[in-house]
Amino acid sequence: MSDSRILIVDDEERTRTFICDGLSALGITNDAICVSSAEEALAEAERSHVDLVISDVRMPGLNGLDLVRFLHQLHPGTPIILITGYSTRDLERAAIGLAVHTMLKKPFGLEALAAAVKDALRRTQPAPSVIMPPSALEPIIRQMNLLKRDTGAQWIGLLTAGGEVAVSVGQIDHLDSVLEHLGQNGWAPHMTSICEECACFLYVQSQPHDIYVTSVDREHCLALVYDRRWQGSRIGAVWLGARHAVQELARVLNVPPQLAAPQALALPQVANGVPGIEP
Fold first, then answer.
1. Is 39 exposed, middle or buried (0-12, 13-18, 19+ CB in 10 A)?
2. Are 67 and 17 in contact (CB under 8 A)?
3. How many angstroms separate the CA atoms of 234 and 210, rounded?
4. Sign of the torsion formed by the C-alpha atoms of 36, 53, 103 and 170
5. Max Cα-Cα span within the chain
6. In what order do the strands lie in the sheet with 80-84?
7. Quick check: 74 pLDDT over 60?
8. Do 175 and 165 touch, CB atoms closer than 8 A?
9. Which of 9, 76, 110, 243 could connect to 55 by a Cys-Cys bridge, CB 3.0–4.6 Å?
10. Considering the entire predicted model, what is its pTM?
C-alpha cells in the first residue's frame, strides 16, 4: 500500500466515495482526502503537501480549471487529474494548456482510474538530485515561474552540463521522453561547452513538443517545452523572455555578466538526430 497523499475533489458524494474506495481496493492508498469543493481543496493544499489531485471540472463556486490554476501557484509540481462527464474540444485544449496530467471521462472504471493514478504518481518528479544552496533555490524558482508565465511554457527545467534536472517548474505529458531525447542528443553538455564567449539559443521541433534550449553558463542551460498540438511556434517571444531570465539566473548563479545573455538566435536543422547550432 502506498503512502501517497491523494486529494479527491468532487461535489458528488457518490463519485468521491467510488474513487476513494477504488484507490483502497487497488492498493494505492487508504488515506485519500475527500472534499466537496475547490475552495476546500485549496485550504487542504495550503495546510499540507499532496502528491496528486483528482478533481471534477464542473462544481459550484470555483471549477476544476480554476482549481488547477491556483494549485499550480501553490504546488507547481503536483500532478492533477481532471474528471468530467462533459468533455469538449475547448475543455481538452484548456486542460492541455494548464498541463493537466490526464482527463478521465465519466463514467470510468477502476482499470482506467488505476492506470491514470499510477502513471501520475510515477511521473511525479523526485526532489532534485543536484544540490543547490537554499539561498539560490528560491530566486531561481521565482524567475523560472515568471518566465513560464510570460512565455506560456508548459515545463521549464534548469539542466546541469551533465543533463540532470537541477530545478523545474510546470508539467507536461511524456516528460520522461523529453528528458531522454535531450540526453540522447547531448544538448545540455553541448550548449554549455560552447558557452565560452557568448550564450546560445537552440530551437528544435520534436513531435509532439517544441523544445527551446538556451545556455546560462558553463555549468547550466535552460530548457522550455511546449505542446505543438495546441501551442503555435513562439520562437521570438521565447528568445526575448529567455534573454532576461538567463541574465537573472546567471546573476543568482554568480556568472560573469558578459556570458549571461543569448547573443544570437539559432534556427537549427535537425538531421540524423544532430541539431545545428549557430553561436
1. middle
2. no
3. 9
4. positive
5. 62
6. 33-35, 6-9, 52-56, 80-84, 102-105
7. yes
8. no
9. 9
10. 0.52
